[in-house]
Amino acid sequence: MARESTNPAKTTGEDPSSSRPDPLRPEQTTPEPVTGAPPQDLVAGDVDPATVNVDEEDEGRLPDVTEDGNEVIAEGPLAIGHAAIENAVKLAPTSPGVYRMLNAANDVLYVGKAKNVRKRLSSYARASAPLPARILRMIAATVSVEIISTTTETEALLLEANLIKQLRPRFNVQLRDDKSFPYILITGDHWAPQILKHRGAQTRPGQYFGPFASAGAVNRTITALQRAFLIRSCTDAFFESRTRPCLLYQIKRCAGPCTREIDFPGYTELVREAKDFLSGRSQAVKQLLAAEMEKASGELEFETAALYRDRLAALSSIQSQQGINPRTVEEADLFAIHQEGGYSCVEVFFFRTGQNWGNRAYFPRAEKSFTPEEVLASFLAQFYDDKPPPKLILLSHGIEEAELMASALSIKAGFKVEVTTPQRGEKKELIAHALTNAREALGRKLADTATQSRLLTGLVTTLGLSQAPRRIEVYDNSHIQGTNAVGAMIVAGPDGFIKNQYRKFNIKSEGLTPGDDYAMMREVLQRRFKRLLAASAEGEAKTSQTEDDVPQWPDLVVIDGGRGQLNAAKEIFDSLGLAQISLLAVAKGPDRDAGRETLFMPGREAIKLEPRDPVLYFIQRLRDEAHRFVIGSHRKLRKKDIREAGLQEIPGIGPSRKRALLHHFGTLKEIERASIADLGKVPGVSAESARKIFEFFHTQPS
Q1: CA-CA distance, 175 to 360, in Å (whole number)?
Q2: Carries keyword Iron (predicted)?
């Protein structure tokens, strides 16, 4: 779907698009988060949120399956739950609304919506009603009910989805992997538009094409589009500083507008062709290029004909990578669900402008008693809570409230949205293809999980643990001669790496000796586990489970280092009374050879494993992932320091002017090259400040 975005503060070369109605925002009517709900950032304050380099091609991890079989429910708690719901029924409205069931700790157990709230709650209050074990367990744990009235059932549906994503109730279906999707942006705030990958708010003027299922799909498409249409991908600052064409021009992936290798009308025509291709008029664009190639060939201009031939080949490569390209579906999202072994997999395909823009597998958290239709309905509402829907949504299973869902999404989108389950024709074939993908994705994930379980079991035998660890935390730190010191924690569990729980620690101790790795490790562990202890004492963290049923407290802590690092970690653990957590240090082999590592544990002799031992390979993977993550965090800090270092000591140049200079010129090198007149054009930089900046760079030794 192509979307125009304009910024009133900027002048663009494109016509502003008509604005759509603002979508209904149930967040505005949402009350304050319920006390006792899972904390959003358990370690906020001391531990910075990670800048995680998530591989977008990776599928999400499997949730734990909650057994709801022959569970015996005590008569007393069930009666208390019925009484609590009966009290709520007396005050419940007969109008639409959303209700929340809470336990004794004030945690939200379940969020539901109803056209008639009183009638719905009454169905839970009847002790003789035949209900599934899952519902009975929920009632038994309920001590109070909170109700929010809405004007319509449509508003109730939107609010329910928003609250489920916010509160993550135990008895609801939960969409856990909720990353935003990337788009392709052709900018509209420069005479020579730029093509780039975009994620987040669509505030920059230009035309947006998407969504794409992954960053990889966007990158491949942009590369092919550069070959086909020769549109620049460089930043505006880089563009303005060029005096000769860059390498992309030499390898025929840019037309070179920066140095006027192509004139304005010619470049504008290339941009128009690219927009036409992404807007679904690909066949017309290919026919035009083919005609130009034939014309050039007939006039014996073979080099020009070869250029058109290469551009046609690039367009064909885009469509060949897309796999299925439907003939009758212009714009649609397709959802197919497959259940096996108590797990659910939802495969999502994106079709825009008659092209397949990728697919992604999701593994929502849902108890085994949920039917495919129930999982799909809840998944759909949460999926579009913060994403624009297309005009058509195709489902593999019919959901009970398809019309209500279509009405709610139409309100959000500002145009009519259809939700349907196709029964025949090409749409049915697309559903069958998606179901095959869902089945295969779940099969791969189940196989990977089984392999991970075997490795964790091997870890128990090798290290003498009491049970297989469900949460492993690995710590490492990085610095250059003590500068830009940063520590990092990565997390692994039964389903592999849990990347959304990675954390980085900016080393803060002022009295730290530069390069003292032991002191850095002590600081990181102290901050991490003091915070956990404080949260547990205040009742803010559960020592047994988080909202995703993964223990927040680790079973095993792995340190990158030898006996000295192990002793430093043990000293911290002993001072905090953390005897229940197993400690392991991994020392590199001679000459840092992989496969010759030595393992150290408190009170035990050093452990040496055979180079081909799967458990050793597993430990190496953990250590290497921590190393990759901490090095990436350190490089970002170092890059920031290098970028700003030349501006730190200029009198009268504060943070605001520093940012303005960097935003205007892009790099420190370009600021150094700038004349006094160019510096004076930067917003907020006066003539006197421009002179000081110029003199600073031209009087200091290099």
Answers
A1: 13
A2: no
Q: Does the pLDDT of residue 575 top 50, yes or no?
A: yes
Residue 517 tokens, joined:
């790795």
Phi-psi region of 71 (alpha: psi -120 to 50; beta: other; left: phi over 0): beta
Question: Averaged over 504-525, what is the pLDDT?
Answer: 77
pTM for the structure as a whole? 0.62
pLDDT bin (cut points 50, 70, 90) of residue 420 is very high
> Domain for residue 529, yes or no?
yes
For position 487, which CATH number holds? Answer: 3.30.420.340
Determine the Cα–Cα distance for residues 97 and 159; give it in Å rounded to an integer. Answer: 9
Q: Do 644 and 616 share a structural domain?
A: no
Q: What is the pLDDT of residue 666?
A: 63
- Give pLDDT, residue 698: 64
Q: What are phi and psi of 496, to 5 degrees?
A: 105, -155
Confidence of residue 396 (pLDDT cuts 50, 70, 90): very high
CA-based nearest residue to 522, from 576, 463, 580: 576
What mean pLDDT is predicted for residues 154-173? 89
The SS3 of residue 261 is coil
CB-count burial class (<10 Å; 0-12, 13-18, 19+) for 203: exposed
Q: Which amino acid is at 335?
A: F
pLDDT at 353: 72
Last residue of a domain, one of 587, 615, 632: 632
As a whole number, the mean pLDDT across the chain is: 77
The answer to whether residue 196 is domain-embedded is no
Are 552 and 546 within 8 A, CB to CB?
A: yes
- pLDDT of 10 above 60: no
Q: Looking at the structure, tell me whether residues 563 and 652 fall in a common domain.
A: no
* Residue 394 predicted with pLDDT over 50: yes
| pLDDT given for residue 16 in this prediction | 36
- The two beta strands, 195-198 and 206-209, are unpaired
- Name the band, by pLDDT with cuts 50, 70 and 90, for residue 39: very low
Domain assignment of residue 221, yes or no: no
| Same domain for 403 and 337 | yes
Whether residues 475 and 418 fall in one domain: no
Q: Are 59 and 361 in contact (CB under 8 A)?
A: yes
Evaluate whether residue 278 is within a structural domain: no
8 Å CB contact between 231 and 193: yes
Residue 576 structural domain:
464-537+550-632
183 φ, ψ (degrees, to nearest 5): -125, 165
DSSP SS3 for 690: helix
Query: Do 592 and 652 reside in the same domain of the chain?
Result: no
Which residue type, as a one-letter code, is found at position 591?
D
pLDDT value at residue 664? 67
Helix (H, G, I), strand (E, B) or coil at 72: coil
Residue 43 phi, psi (nearest 5): -110, 25
Q: Are 626 and 653 within one domain?
A: no
Whether residues 511 and 587 share a domain: the answer is yes
For 145, other C-beta atoms within 10 Å of its C-beta total 24
The structure tokens listed for 275 are 């927009």
Do 607 and 640 fall within a single domain?
no
For residue 511, what are the contacts with CB-CB under 8 A and spacing of at least 6?
none
Q: Which secondary structure element, helix H or strand E, spans residue 250, and what is its range?
A: helix 247-250
The closest alpha carbon to 401, from 427, 376, 367, 435, belongs to 376
What is the pLDDT at residue 493? 87
What percent of the chain is predicted at pLDDT more than 90? 12
Q: In the numeric block, which tokens belong to residue 688?
A: 């006197």
629 burial level (CB within 10 Å; 0-12, 13-18, 19+): buried
How far is Cα 685 from Cα 525, in angstroms, rounded to an integer?
A: 44
Provide the domain count of the chain.
Answer: 4
Judged by DSSP in three states, 504 sits in strand
**Given 111, 146, 172, which residue is the final one in a domain?**
172
